[in-house]
Structures are given as C-alpha cells and as structure tokens.
Specification:
The complex is a heterodimer of chains A (about 325) and B (about 450). Chain A is α/β, with parallel strands linked by helices. Chain A has ten helices and 14 strands. Chain A has helices at about 40-50, 90-100, 105-120, 135-145, 165-180, 190-195, 215-220, 240, 270-280, 295-300; strands at about 1-10, 15-25, 30-35, 55-60, 65, 75-80, 150-155, 185, 200-205, 210-215, 225-230, 245-255, 255-265, 280-290. In chain A, the strands form three sheets. In chain A, strands 6-7-8-3-9-10 form a six-stranded mixed sheet, with helices on both faces. In chain A, helix 2 (about 90-100) crosses helix 3 and helix 2 (about 90-100) runs parallel beside helix 4 (about 135-145). Chain A starts with a strand and ends in a 15-residue tail after the last helix. With about 450 residues, chain B is mainly alpha-helical. Chain B folds into two domains: about 1-40 and about 170-444, no CATH class; about 50-150, 3-Layer(aba) Sandwich (D-Maltodextrin-Binding Protein, domain 2), CATH 3.40.190.10. Chain B is about 65% helix and about 5% strand. Chain B contains 16 helices and six strands. Chain B has a four-stranded mixed sheet, with helices on both faces. In chain B, strands 5-6 form a two-stranded antiparallel sheet. In chain B, strand 5 and strand 6 (about 170) form a beta hairpin. In chain B, helix 6 (about 170-205) packs antiparallel against helix 14, helix 8 runs antiparallel to helix 10 (about 310-335) and helix 10 runs antiparallel to helix 14 (about 385-390). The longest helix of chain B is centred in the middle third of the chain and has 49 residues, at about 220-265. Chains A and B meet through strand 6 and helix 2 of A and helix 1, helix 6 and helix 7 of B.
Amino acid sequence: MDILVTHNITKRFANHVALNGVSISVPQQSIYGLLGPNGAGKTTLIRIINMITGPDEGEVLLNGEKLRQNHIEQIGYLPEERGLYKKMKVGEQALYLAQLKGLSRADAMKKLKYWFEKFEIAGWWNRKVEELSKGMQQKIQFIVTVLHDPKLLIFDEPFSGFDPINANIIKDEIIRLKENGATIIFSTHNMSSVEELCDDIALINKSNKILEGKVKEIKNTYKDNVYQVELTGYNHELKHQLNGDFIIEQEAHADDILTANIKIRSGKTTNEMIQALMQFGNVHAIREIIPTMNDIFIAKVNNDTLKYNSATNLTE
Amino acid sequence: MKKTLIIIKREYLSRVKKRSFIVMTILGPILMASLMIVPFFISKWGEDTKNIDVVDETGIYVDHLTSNKSVQFNYLPTNIKTAKDNLIKSGSYCLLYIPKPTLTDSNSALLYYSNKQPGISVTSYVHEKMKYVLENKMLHDKYGLDKKDIESVKTTIDLKMENVQTGENSSPELTMMIGLFAGILIYISIFMFGSQVMRGVIEEKTSRIIEVIVSSVKPFQLLMGKITGIALVGLTQFMLWIVLTLGIVTVFQASVFTATKKNVSTEQKGINVQQHTLMTNTIDKSTPKDEDTEMMNSVMHSVGSYNYVMIILMFLFFFLFGYLLYGALFAAIGSAVDNEADTQQFMLPITIPLILAFVLSQTIINNPQGPLAFWFSIIPLTSPIVMMIRLPFGVPTYELILSMGLLVLGFLGATWFAAKIYRTGILMYGKKVSYKELWKWLKY
C-alpha cells in the first residue's frame, strides 16, 4: 500500500514549468529519497504535497484519499530554509507551532517535555531563540516537525547545519520513526545518506521524474557486470591476451599488484573469468563494482554513461 | 478557525507583552491628560513674579500700572542714575524709565536690564499697561471720564454656536480641535499599526518560519490572524488610553474643585467672577483660583457638549476598518519584499492617499460640508481620516452610513487583493519584485 501517490502533477509558473507530469508512489513505512539537482522542482513538489501551493494539473492522494486541508495534521514538514521567531521563547514557540498542527495545549506540553528531555535541552525552555546556535535551533525545528506523530514526514536536507554527532542523533531518530510506522520523504543532495537510509528513491531533473524505484533494484539495474580484480605475479601483457568475452576497461599497476576493471560479456560467468585470469597470475582479490547512487545520479542527470566514482576509478 | 484564533492570540500577546507597548500605554494618557492639565498649571505656577522697578519722571504712571501674578511694579522715588546703579544689586528683573516728555518725543519709555533681556511677555505687558494708563488719563483729561465710566463700557463678546435641531452648542475652535485630533490620531495609528503588520510579515519571511507555518495553516489564515491580532492590540491601546485619560482628568478635576472650595471657605470670600482683575491694583490672592475654576468649568462644559460616545464609537469604527484596509495592503507589501529597505517603491501609492487626506485637513476644516470634504470622506482610502475631521461639525446620517459601508467594502477588496499577493509573495525569495510581477501574482 502506498501512503502517498501523486498523479501527473504539473505546475507552471509565469516563465517556466516547475513540474511536468510528475507521478511518484511512496510506499508505507519506508524512507523515500527525493533526489535531483538544484532547481529541478523538488521543493515545488514538496510544497504541493504540503498544500502550500496547489498543482495546475494532477492530484495527490494520501492513503488513497484526495488531499484535503485536514490531512495537513498527518504530515510533518521540515523545510530546507527553516527558521523560528527570533524574539520568542523556545518553549512558547514550540507550543505555538504544535497547536497550529492541531495538538491541544496540554498534549503538546506533554509531548514537548518528552522530546526536550530526550534531546537533553529542557533547560532551553525559557530562552529566546536568538540566543541559541543554529544547530540548537535545528533540533527544536526537528522536534516541532515530529511532535504531532505525523504518518508522513517530509525532511528537506535534514542534516544541514548539524555537527556529525547531532546528525547521527537525528539519523537514528529518523530510523526509529520509520520503525514506529511513519513514512519519510527525504530530500537531499547528500548521496551517502541516501544509500544509508533510503529504501526507495525518485530522481527529478528539469521538472521531470527520470528515475524511480527501490535503491537496491536501481543499483542492480545500473551495474554493468564489471568486476575489479587484483593479480599478483602477473604477465604484463594481460590486455592483449584476454579474449573478447572479458573486456578490460581500466588497468593499473602498483607494488607488484595489477588492478583491473573487467567487464564480463553476457553469458559468461565470473568463474570463467577467474579461470581465464589464472593463466596470467595469481588472483589476489575480486569484487563486483556496484554503482553508487552518486554515480547513478550524475549519469542520469547529465544523460551520460555511467562513470565510476574515484573509489573505483583507476586512472585518476 | 481554531487555528486562526491561535494565531490571533500569539500576534496579540507577543505585542501586548512588549515593553514598548506598556510604555506607550502609560505615556499616552499622561501626555493627553497633560495637554488638558498643564496649561492650567502653567497659568498657576508657571512664572515667578518679576519685579520691575519704575522710575517715573512724568508722575502719570505712579501707582497706576497694574501688577499681576507674574509682573510686580515697584515705584522708586530716586532718580534714574541711582536706580540704574541699584538695578544690579537689587536683583530686580528690569528697570522701567519714563522720562519727562519732550517736544519731539511725548510718549516714550526705556527698559533697562542687566544680564537677562526681558521676554516678550513682559515687554508687551508693560507696553499694554502703560498704554492703558495713558489712555485712561487722556479720556479723563479731555472728556472728564473717570475709571469707572471707562470700565463700564469695556465688553467681551462670547460667540457661541448652537444647533437648532439638537440644541447642542459648541465653539468652532473646539470642534476643529476635536476633529483634527481624531483625524491625526487615525492617521498616525494607521501608519503605526499598518507598518507593524508589514514588519511582522517581513519578519516571518526573512526568518523563514513562514514555510513551517503555511505547512500547518493556509496563508490566508495567517494573514487574517496577524491583521486581527494587531487590530486588537490597537483597540486595547485606545481603550486603555481613553479610560486612563478620563481617569486622570477626573481625579485632577475633583482635586482642583475641593482645593478651590476649601480656599473659598477659609478666606470667607464670595466668588464674584464679574468684578475682578483689572479693577484692583493690589494682588488678590484668590483671584487666580476663581479664574481657574471658571476656566476649567467652561472647558469641561463645552467639552461635555459634544456627543462623545458617538465620536468615540465612530473613531473606533473608522480606526478599525481604516486600519484593516491599510493593514491588508501593508501585509501585501511586506510579502512582496525581502527586507524593509525594499518596501519604499510599494509604500508610495499607499501612503499618498493617507498623506493627501492629512494635508487637506485644513481645507476640510474650513469647509467641512464642501464637495472636497464630501468626496474625500466617502472614498475608502481617505475616509477614515477625513470623516473623523468632519464628524464633530455634524455629518448627515446617510453620508456617514455610505462612508462606513464603502469602507467595509474597501476593506474586503483590499483583503482579497492582499491575499493574492501575499500567498505568492511569502514564498518568493531573492527576486526584486516589480509592479508587473505583482500583476501576474494577482492572476495566479
């Protein structure tokens, strides 16, 4: 069951089309990465899901129902550009924002206490927001976003502004929220956090969705049957001796070790490749090269063939 | 609706709790009450008695120049030279020297001073008294009239006005004052509270809290919550001002009356307001008090002759809807810009009608029933100010209702217009917005 579905969302602004028939499906209780370069239309899509703006065409379904204003209470949204009233006290402000999400004052109070203690910030309750550091403010914003136990959470670059320790705390909270049944839409440019957290992704580029699916499946689709092998005691003329079933894409020598990225033609197996390689030296190590999300992102956005990142790139 | 109430509550409380609001609320009534009370005190204790030495070689003026509470004439028998030498030592304010008339110069006098040049109030007082004495003498010499005869023909005209229909009487100055005061107060408060709305919108935009809020409530709810909250702040302020001012004035009035009564009973003097002042040469200590009481009474009486409840109610109505109309427009401006410095280009068209109404107030007072006054008190953008100026002069009921109705319509129109700009503007960053752009937003 998909908690959130958008059907052919189109949004036009005066001078350009921000979204062009974008359809995404977000499975229940998953972490869904919404990826795309700057200006692709992610924020517009997020705003439409949050009913901040309306689509020109298409519709958004939440739990199969057409999005209505009172659905807003089931959504928690942490925008990328976020802020708080600077002159207002932390506790007062958190209560206010929670009440706007439909919580009663007493409920909000109870839940805030829990979260403030959990994040060890109870002492900030009566301080003004302007006295806090940016990271501290982010914590409060995170609490306010999740306070009303929304079924759907939308985080736009949630880790920006956090130090690594606090970013980890937030990451653990996001995973815990998912385990407790929430669905999370997660928009970011940080591809390593996508690999780490996301179950599904959608890639939006120039107002169009160009890729959607499970992270594992996408990576499998984009892998190219390329293996990285290391040989010792090797024959120097590997490149010309290997038959056409195994294509050497890159090759490097260092410290008596030859490292090569070898692509296996379809129909051939890794065992056959190892057999072929054994003639030239000792097979020291072998592993499959699976493209990272970063590689896929760059390849798709640039409409280019997949290039491996520096970790597996041998020529650079 | 519930969420709008939460917003109103925040907007209201966050402003009412501010120190500046509390200070203004307390200072306002004190200022207004002092406008009524201070002139009274100034007339009572405002000046020290200034001693003026008089050397009169003509003998005409001796013992005839009337002293009052601020100027006291002392007649010196010495000649001018010793008097001049004496001036510095005696500490007198100045020395009036009236030489014997010569052929070429019959009526001249000289005022000597040591360190401080006498103020205009003293010189004109001396001038007036000398003239009075001399004229009296000439009337006496030429026509044989004595002082009593002359006093008996002196009159003052008290021009009062009365409405034949309602029987209300009024003085034109006071009517003018009330109208102008109410008009200016509306002008100032629309600017004051309108720009509070604008600053509030800009604050939400620049602090980027706006996106969090509009993901919880509709932009229109936030807009209305903010405008209404600040309207309540304004109304609270005015209510407190009115109550506190009336309180201060009432307390003051009561204390003055008791003081006067006590004074009268202890000195066993009847108050006879017809025959006082100029007649007596000596200083009558009770006279100023009688004068004060009379002045206070007359002010209070004529102030009381207006339909205050009506004027205050109308003031609150025109303030409220005038503010709501302009507040919506100010909010639209705030949403269209990134910081306060950029507001200038959009402020102009909004401030022009307000300033125009303000500038025209003099013309409108001169002819409160003229076509200019009529039209400007009907058009919603100027009516809150102009109608308040006209109101104390009396405005036909149908004009008042027309004006109020159009103002409400104007408010609805402005809100519709502002909401369209607002909901696009609050999420628009880093773009210098032009009028053309705003026009596009209207059509989204």
